[in-house]
Design goal:
Elements (H helix, E strand, L loop, with lengths): L10 H10 L6 H5 L6 H10 L15 H31 L4 H17 L1 H8 L4 H24 L5 H24 L10 H29 L2 H20 L16 H13 L2 H22 L1 H8 L4 H29 L1 H14 L3 H7 L4 H30 L5 H13 L1 H15 L2 H11 L5 H4 L12 H4 L1
């Protein structure tokens, strides 16, 4: 679902906010946290040019766009299935310990720390569709190894670590390219429509995928359910082979040294006091939220005794909160002001995680509590993300947008693999539920950067000339 221009947010901003999902609200939320890269920059640059007239719904007649869109829709749906099936496989089939689940989660998000910072600069030098084709091939082969090893009765946890690591790196490259390729597929006047279509399928996948994945795992073995995702990656690979784009790689003379480009992005982010506070809140929130989220499969499936199907339903209903949050954000901003919406969202998502360990105290009410927690978390994250992403995109020069996003993502997602390993250690040492309490209490510290900052004193956030 996308907001109309009348609501004050275009599909590019919603795409960035949903993709960022900077405080993860589902397993997909962690792994789909990808960099928008130069797509936003090109949208800003093109906004200064006269838009090419385009009749509404014209992309429905664009066979080239529909080919790529159909492939992406299938792969997004399939990814949601594996995001549920992989931890279920680890916990219920391989009987993974808390620390092993921590390593698995860390492997899946390690790419944000290892290649997250230079990914934007690297991909900006490549043909993005070609990067996506190779990434799909790598993901299909790596993930296909899981059911093959299971069928041979030799599947072990270390196999899952390697697969998660490989898929994580490939997904970073795929998603950065995917967010950047739209302007080379359609005319300038069709970019908003294209983003809207991509976002609608992503949201539908987030709603239906986890529930379907839980059902599929229930009637099939988890490794066999993963085969569905392999098929969708192959479908995306084939669709991209038949897609044509008009992207022209950057000329070699237009490239600065990689380290110089990375340093310029970091300097921009940390040189702005408001951006520093936003990065602080998001990074601390991600750290403590990853502590709890790493152990969530064990918490749901072992501690609370829920089924994989129930786990999928919880994730799907949580995604509804994100849709409602996207709709409500313009109204919240109009009521309280753009600047104050940021600490309001932060206060909310700092408090809501307490409902997770509370569910263990009253297990008879665990399912409705977890549904409410997931819904509220998704809602509040979208309010926070849409507002702060809008501000970031507005004040950053177009040539720096990709590197600004890469710098922010490196800082706020680079803590995730570290937190996942700590979660595994704490879960082994103290237990799952005590670790959930530590994470929930620690989350309160996250909002302090923006709650006690200058945001309350302003109604509107600075414009580019004021923030420079």
């Amino acid at each position: 679902m996308s907001q109309s221009p009348e609501d004050g947010y275009d599909d590019g901003i919603l795409a960035e906010a949903r993709a960022e999902a900077s405080i993860p609200t589902s397993r997909a939320g962690v792994d789909e946290a990808v960099e928008a890269d130069q797509d936003a920059a090109r949208n800003v640059e093109r906004s200064a040019e006269p838009a090419t007239p385009s009749p509404k719904g014209s992309l429905w007649r664009d066979r080239n766009f529909l080919t790529m869109w159909s492939g992406q829709a299938l792969s997004q749906f399939g990814a949601q299935i594996t995001e549920l099936a992989l931890p279920v496989l680890a916990v219920l089939v391989l009987q993974a310990t808390e620390f092993e689940v921590g390593i698995l989660t860390a492997a899946g998000v390690a790419a944000f720390l290892v290649v997250g910072l230079p990914a934007g600069a690297w991909i900006d030098r490549m043909r993005k569709r070609h990067v996506m084709i190779w990434a799909d091939a790598v993901r299909a082969v790596a993930l296909g190894a899981v059911p093959a090893l299971w069928a041979l009765d030799v599947l072990e946890m270390w196999h899952l670590y390697v697969v998660a690591l490989v898929i994580g790196v490939a997904t970073v490259f795929f998603d950065v390219s995917n967010q950047s390729i739209v302007p080379s597929l359609v005319r300038p006047g069709q970019i908003a429509e294209a983003n809207g279509k991509f976002q609608s399928t992503e949201q539908l996948a987030g709603l239906a995928g986890p529930a379907f994945g839980g059902w599929l795992v229930g009637i099939l073995a988890a490794p066999l359910a993963i085969l569905v995702t392999v098929v969708t990656y192959i479908a995306s690979f084939v669709a991209l082979l038949f897609t044509r784009d008009h992207e022209q790689p950057r000329h070699v003379d237009d490239r600065a040294p990689l380290l110089h480009e990375i340093a310029e992005g970091l300097k921009w982010v940390f040189g702005n006091p408001l951006l520093r506070r936003i990065v602080g809140t998001t990074g601390v929130a991600n750290f403590f939220n990853t502590l709890s989220f790493t152990l969530l499969p064990i918490f749901l499936l072992r501690e609370l005794g829920l089924s994989p199907a129930s786990m999928g339903v919880i994730f799907s209903l949580a995604a509804v909160g994100g849709l409602v949050g996207a709709i409500a954000t313009p109204r919240i901003v109009a009521l309280f002001g753009e600047a104050r919406a940021i600490p309001i969202g932060a206060i909310g998502f700092s408090a809501v995680p307490l409902l997770l360990p509370v569910a263990a105290v009253v297990p008879e009410f665990a399912f409705p509590l977890l549904v409410v927690q997931g819904f509220l978390m998704s809602f509040l994250v979208l309010v926070y993300n849409i507002t702060q992403v809008t501000f970031r995109q507005r004040i950053t020069p177009p040539r720096l947008l990709g590197r600004m996003n890469a710098s922010v993502r490196f800082c706020v997602w680079g803590v995730m693999p570290i937190a996942a390993l700590i979660a595994g250690g704490l879960g082994t040492w103290l237990g799952v539920v005590p670790t959930m309490w530590i994470a929930a209490i620690g989350q309160f510290a996250a909002g302090s950067f923006v709650v006690f900052g200058p945001f309350w004193k302003m109604r509107e956030l600075p414009e580019p000339t004021d923030a420079a």
